[in-house]
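question for whoever is on the cluster today: can someone run the full assembly for these? two chains, 393 residues total. i dont have access anymore since they changed the login thing
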Amino acid sequence: MSVAVDPYEGPVVLGDDPSLGPGVQIDYPGYRSTRWRVPKRPLQTLPEELMALDGPVFGESAIDELDNDLTRQHEGEPLGERITVSGRVLDEDGRPLRGTLVEIWQANAAGRYRHEVDQHPAPLDPNFSGAGRCLTDDEGRYHFTTIKPGSYPWRNHPNAWRPNHIHFSLFGRLFEQRLVTQMYFPGDPLFPYDPIFNSVRDPEARKLLIARFDLPTTVPEWSLAYEWDIVLGRARRGTTPVEQQ
Amino acid sequence: MSLPTTPSQTVGPFYSIGLCRREDNELDPDGIELRGTLYDGQGERVPDGMIEVWDAAARVWGRCGTSEEAGSYHFRVPRDAAVLEVFVFSRGMLRHERTRIYLREGEDEVWRSLDDSQRERLLARREGDALVFDIRMQGDDATVFFEH
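^ ran it for u. tokens below:
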């Protein structure tokens, strides 16, 4: 007699599967919260013209001064390691996407978000909100000054800690180029243990989420620099939900 | 040349810090109210979800985080809008899902491709002066989601 195995009681991090390509496995059991939030029925297809729709366009009015400098939004400076994060936003053909709205949010240097639901007992920083936005320039470039976010526990499984990361949200030219993702820092020792990072099953694709330390663009005596290019496209789903019941 | 696309990751529970700094839920200030609730597969209200809608015909866009108390969202949308393109985000969703909200019986190719039960699950209902559309991620009455 076979015993039904509950995949959500299985390993936190599944093995690599390069066949899934750059897609994320949306029903990834190691990330427990996926269980009740992922569609289980087959998805319907849309005609090509709805896959190729233009998306919303945001102009300068979407941006306030200092929106791209998270270290200057308060009276004093935030605590933490000052960094710049910049890069290009491209389409799959390598063309720069100009005028793209890039929004970021992150924990402070102690690993605490300025959000009432975040109960991690690490200090809030009165000089850090942790939110920024900018539009890409004619070469598709974005640029932020911020501080390096801390790691924090998140209770997905015993002693679960998130690798340091900055959340990114982007609108491309097409509606279907919408992307919400997270940027990680090179060499993080938590990578092998994080189910969100490993929900991208192809190890080569996971590298696409990791910024590059960039010595030439550091500001001497001031800030370290990370470079991270982002490619917006359509084929991002690593698995298709299967019919259940 | 075809570059590999950057993978998606979840918005997580604290997206409102970065994405809900402005009120973005009035596509048309004089429009009709569209509201609803986001439910998970256990029928629980999702308090950390986010809905984005795009009226491609009028080229107006909006987004709204679901409320922490009730998992509800609300927009003001153009009175003559026929259908909205919709993305659903939440903690626990590693990538956003795509659906559509029909504000009245559809006449388009997608509507014609659906059966009656699917149409029912994509059509907003009238409640007084408002339109109501609940989004259910799973279950027998789950919202219809589209490949994207």
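summary bc i know u wont read the tokens: Chain B has a mean pLDDT of 96. DSSP finds three helices and nine strands in chain B.
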